[in-house]
Amino acid sequence: QVQLTESGGGLVQAGGSLRLSCGASGSTFSRYAMGWFRQAPGKEREFVAAIRRSGDTAYYADFVKGRSTISRDNAKNTVYLQMIRLKPEDTAVYYCAADLYGAGSQRESEYEFWGQGTQVTVSS
Fold first, then answer.
1. How far is CA 39 from its chain centroid?
2. DSSP string covering 5-55, please?
3. Rounded to whole angstroms, how far apart are CA atoms 15 and 97?
4. Which of 2, 30, 117, 120 has an alpha carbon within 20 to 30 A of 42's alpha carbon?
């Protein structure tokens, strides 16, 4: 069982930035591709970004491309999501997830472990 814990969410004004972190338990973090998803109230959870095990390749949803950077530090068992120029529509609970077998999918079903989420609220 991989335990994932998100942090770094909060309340920011539109145009601001946040850096989300997700710490993973255990010593096998480098084996997993990692992803970030978000879910706004009343909406489906949607893909935000993913990164391969080595951190050399990343994928982004179109709505965050150019405004978000996913990265990982395997030595710290941590994946990050740096978000800039935040918009009110970015308001959501952001979740990190571990993909044990893939390269970082956009599909929620490909991820085996999920964190509890961290709230991001962007005011207009």
1. 11
2. EEE--EEEETT--EEEEEEE-SS-GGGSEEEEEEE-TTS--EEEEEE-TTS
3. 26
4. 2
